[in-house]
Design goal:
161 residues, alpha+beta, four-stranded antiparallel beta sheet, 8 strands, elongated
Length: 161
């Protein structure tokens, strides 16, 4: 009987040792899985950061292309330069005489309201009057009446309600 009791007391010892070994293996496996997940998340974060930088560069490149556009007027020496992102307009005069070349501002106000939708947001349309154009914001439909001229008093822009 003493042998039997002794056997019952000794019997759980190997199992408890095995339980600790299994527990340590599970902890070890859990730690290595955690490290693997952490490494993968770090790689994903790096890829996302790189991707975002590339997308920002593409957006910058595309917003700069075609930003400025020249419009012919009926006067062969004058063009209107439109910043298609902001709606700013300059009258540009060219000449064979260098002293007569230059540009003057018709509109120096950012009409995009700081929204910055990108190049191509604004467009100029000629009217039947050679000195007047219609400016439209193609993102929201706002319109302006634009007049260019050879004298300061004859250059202006006003909102069309």
């Amino acid at each position: 009987m003493k042998k039997f009791l002794f056997f019952l007391l000794i019997l759980p010892i190997p199992f408890s040792g095995m339980a600790q070994t299994v527990g340590k293996k599970q902890e070890s496996t859990s730690d290595s899985q955690g490290k693997n997940i952490s490494a993968l998340l770090s790689k994903i974060d790096t890829l996302l950061t790189t991707n975002n930088m590339l997308l920002e560069q593409i957006e910058i490149d595309s917003s700069l292309k075609g930003r400025f556009k020249l419009y012919k007027t009926e006067n062969i020496y004058n063009f209107l330069e439109l910043d298609t992102k902001t709606g700013k307009i300059q009258q540009v005069q060219w000449s064979l005489d260098e002293k007569e070349e230059g540009s003057v501002v018709i509109n120096n106000v950012d009409l995009s309201l700081g929204m910055g939708y990108g190049s191509g947001s604004f467009e100029l349309y000629p009217t039947s009057n050679i000195y007047q154009f219609i400016l439209i914001d193609k993102t929201d439909g706002r319109k302006w009446h634009v007049q260019w001229g050879l004298e300061n008093a004859k250059r202006w822009i006003r909102n069309i309600d």
